[in-house]
Design brief:
CATH class of one domain: Alpha Beta
Order of helices and strands: HHHHHEEHEEHHEEEEHHEHEEEH
Number of strands: 12
CATH topology of one domain: Chemotaxis protein chec
Radius of gyration: 48 Å
Number of helices: 12
Low-confidence stretches: 21-56
Oligomer: single chain
């Protein structure tokens, strides 16, 4: 072995390799041989982001829905989920806000690859107005917090697993939310839309477990993503998954309703009221036909015979005509202003005979010590020995009710080992009358 080291051996030592044998290839050729492997790794690394790209999940995604249709679906989701957030806020007793939706074309296989975690799927079917079903997906952890709030908790210590009771509570919340969504859609589409009770299921998207029968695993769907925040307890993403058929039907319904509003002519202006009728005019009677023979003039009043001797007028006599509209005033009739007896201000006399008819009617008399309000959870937790605190202080008068209406107040006494009530105050008649009208 020679004591000198060639240049090739020095390069091999500097590159981290050993001293090549005499029959080996030169070290300078090794990087060139490894170059294709590095290029292949570079190609794989550049192709990795493309797997998460939405356009690679659904071929020709831009040809399925146009940008205008996506904007219409976003507007539909924005309005409908706003109503759903208001409904959920009332149910949970906390402020719920849902941000502007993001509309995209995806597949169930791609959704499972991007969200490999347990999700609560709420499948809702449309029965009137729209033909088909849709899915509302919520993370299982968020569903646990909603279940805890629905059952009277504060949401800070939610259950770790969802049992049947929790699933039922979340299903009721989702039913109310989707009911508000259908009401909003009815207003937007100008037609009646109704839904069936939701079908709730817990699915782990990280497993090959089947998700839904609505769409196939590789079928294109519309995914509308929302960000939901619940008063510092929940801050995550929820998804609404629609088949392409339902999405296009919704867009068509929205477009048709807007076109009908534009084409519908404005209602005609109301006709002006008819002019008031002219003042009534007394019709002038037509002139009487001339008598064939003029009657003789009547004799003066003094010449009239007494009433008992009054004779009928001669034949052919016509009485004088009377003009219409003239008042006929009777002479000699006494006229005086109306006079009424003064109203009595004293108490009304009660007929004891009528009261006697109902004296034997039984009435329910109850004494109320106090009241309180409890949630369903607190009532279910009551057991032997539990103490229920009332809204009255010790020694405060109790209420005496007759048929559920407050009549008097009193204090509790003990008579021969039995409780009794000593009446200390009678409710005034005015207050009793007000309570009877409530």
């Amino acid at each position: 072995m020679s004591d000198t080291i060639s240049q090739e051996e020095i390069d091999a030592l500097l590159n981290g390799g050993g001293i090549p044998a005499a029959g080996d290839a030169p070290a300078a050729e090794a990087p060139a041989a490894e170059a294709p492997a590095d290029d292949a790794s570079a190609v794989d690394a550049s192709a990795a982001p493309a797997a998460d790209d939405m356009s690679s999940a659904v071929p020709d995604a831009d040809n399925i829905l146009s940008d205008m249709q996506k904007d219409a679906l976003g507007e539909i989701g924005n309005i409908s989920m706003g109503s759903a957030a208001t409904t959920l806020s009332v149910l949970l007793g906390h402020k719920v806000s849902i941000t502007t939706p993001m509309v995209s074309i995806d597949t169930m296989a791609h959704i499972r690859a991007n969200y490999p975690m347990p999700y609560l799927f709420v499948e809702v079917g449309y029965t009137v107005g729209i033909d088909g079903n849709n899915i509302l997906a919520i993370q299982a952890g968020d569903a646990c917090i909603i279940a805890d709030l629905m059952m009277g908790g504060d949401g800070t210590n939610p259950p770790t697993d969802l049992n049947e009771i929790h699933m039922s509570a979340v299903g009721e919340a989702m039913n109310q939310m989707m009911g508000a969504v259908s009401t909003s859609l009815s207003t937007m589409f100008n037609k009646k839309i109704d839904i069936s009770p939701p079908k709730v299921s817990l699915v782990d998207l990280g497993t090959p477990e089947p998700v839904t029968e609505i769409v196939d695993n590789d079928e294109a769907v519309v995914k509308i993503s929302f960000r939901m925040e619940v008063d510092g307890l929940i801050d995550s993403e929820i998804m609404q998954i629609l088949p392409i058929k339902i999405a296009t039907e919704m867009v068509d319904s929205l477009m048709n309703s807007s076109q009908e509003e534009e084409v519908t002519p404005a209602p005609p202006a109301p006709a002006p009221p008819p002019p008031p009728p002219p003042a009534a005019q007394v019709p002038t009677p037509p002139p009487a036909a001339p008598a064939p023979q003029a009657p003789p003039p009547p004799p003066p009043p003094a010449a009239y015979p007494p009433q008992e001797a009054y004779a009928a007028p001669p034949q052919g006599y016509a009485p004088p005509m009377q003009t219409y509209g003239q008042a006929r005033v009777a002479a000699g009739v006494p006229v005086a202003p109306a006079q009424f007896a003064p109203l009595a201000t004293g108490p009304v006399q009660v007929n004891d005979a009528n009261i006697g008819l109902i004296l034997d009617v039984p009435l329910q008399v109850s004494v109320e010590l106090g009241r309180t309000k409890k949630s369903i959870k607190e009532v279910l937790e009551l057991a032997n020995g539990s103490i229920v605190e009332l809204d009255k202080l010790a020694g405060e008068p109790v209420d005496i009710n007759v048929n559920g209406k407050l009549l008097a107040k009193g204090e509790v006494v003990v008579i021969d080992e039995n409780f009794g009530v000593r009446i200390t105050d009678i409710v005034s008649p005015e207050e009793r009358a007000q309570r009877l009208s409530q």
